[in-house]
């Protein structure tokens, strides 16, 4: 076998781009070797066996946050440094240069196609305001390095960014170190004087970590050439929660006001605004706040275009465990109501009737509802564990998590002249297959008032036409087309029934259609096959004997 054959390549190099565990393991091994430590020596320092450590370095074993912290302590570095180091090695390693070049050459057409496809999103997002909220786990687990690369990309596209971080794991860790115990009441921490000092310390440390990573500009890394300026300050005015369920929560508070003018000034200056879950009162007190309260209040105050929550789950699931890509606030309320009923029904609770609804979803979904009902256009719930989750959610058609909106994203309406280009893209492939009769741009422009379209988030994804024959009180249903990416979800049915209702409203008694390929579809919707003589006289004259379309008729 040739020494440079791909089959002879080390597994960690072959999979480096696709396996984060391997990349982190390589960074740990590199740091260990720089300090001339053996596997056994490092394993003894962190209290594990050399076999486990070897599997971690090869990427064959997942590393827990606790073990990662022990390794970093033994090697005198931070998780962020390891992640930054492995990113640098990924780009700089000669073997990876060759491999990446080879992959790039093979996937160049796909890359060009994808890059062109995101152009509408780039145009749409420039100058928009996004609020991105994440728990302290993102920093603790070393995930903020990758997130910072995505934030840098958004900033380079002139997206106005407001980051809201949590600090719960850091607070709990410091409380444990100080042998302090606090009480939680319905998820809210009772923050006494001692705990408040811990809260301030934890938030200060995490804010510095975030600012330092956003300041990186390593050569041959996604942060090369970045110039992110981070602004923090007393933008959040808070008030005490007070007594809740009979317990005085002391320094635990809730948002009273957001200094939207101050934040807007920072955004206008091109800065990224970073908010901690802390609030200040006019009397000089400091309050411990919930990250979702700060994020939602900020998004509402700034009339943000998007609010994005990074959570443990990939999104919101229904009772059957299916991931919901989109949902309205009403649908979200219904889901929460069903879960509440399950939780309070002893028999259903014993059967674990709602196993697919996690605490994370129940925690963030009410926040998403509140945001959308108060003017935030879109709220996204996505998984923090997925590399590039924000980019996949924002720059792909399907997204990767759950998007919550106040009103449905799909609507049906009469077409106008601006829709001609979209209609041509929909029907031309079907015309080429002989399913639809050919129509040119000129004919479409002349008949545009006969067309109805289905939109999804502003994009035309379906069309149909109604051609009236007033003297016979008959109407032709024609040119039904649904974009391939949206087929199989009942959209053709919904568009047909919408057109059927329009025909009834206009006073027609009978609907007919001509088809060569989809006769069963129409039979299933109440049409009956008839002969050509059942058509209006004018339509009979236009009947194409060569095409020999079958005639179907339905009484309205």
Defining traits:
Aminopeptidase, Carbamate kinase, 8-stranded mixed sheet, 434 Repressor (Amino-terminal Domain), 556 residues, alpha/beta
Q: Could you name the ranges where pLDDT drops below 50 across 5 or more consecutive residues?
A: 1-18, 87-101
Give the neighbour order of strands across the main sheet. 5-10-2-1-13-17-18-16
Number of strands: 25
Under the CATH scheme, which class of the largest domain? Alpha Beta
| Helix count, DSSP H or I runs of 4 or more residues | 23
Structural class: alpha/beta
What is the CA-CA span between the terminal residues?
A: 74 Å
CATH superfamily of the largest domain: Acetylglutamate kinase-like
Mean pLDDT: 85
Strand content: 15-25%
Task: Give a brief outline of the structure.
With 556 residues, the chain is of the alpha/beta class. It contains 23 helices and 25 strands.
Report on this model:
By secondary structure, the protein is of the alpha/beta class. The chain folds into 3 domains: 6-102, lambda repressor-like DNA-binding domains (434 Repressor (Amino-terminal Domain)), CATH 1.10.260; 125-405, Carbamate kinase (3-Layer(aba) Sandwich), CATH 3.40.1160; 410-555, 3-Layer(aba) Sandwich (Aminopeptidase), CATH 3.40.630.30. It contains 23 helices and 25 strands. Helix 14 packs parallel to helix 17 and helix 15 (329-343) runs antiparallel to helix 17. The longest helix has 24 residues, at 94-117. The protein is elongated, with a radius of gyration of 29 Å. Residues 1-18 and 87-101 have low confidence and may be disordered.
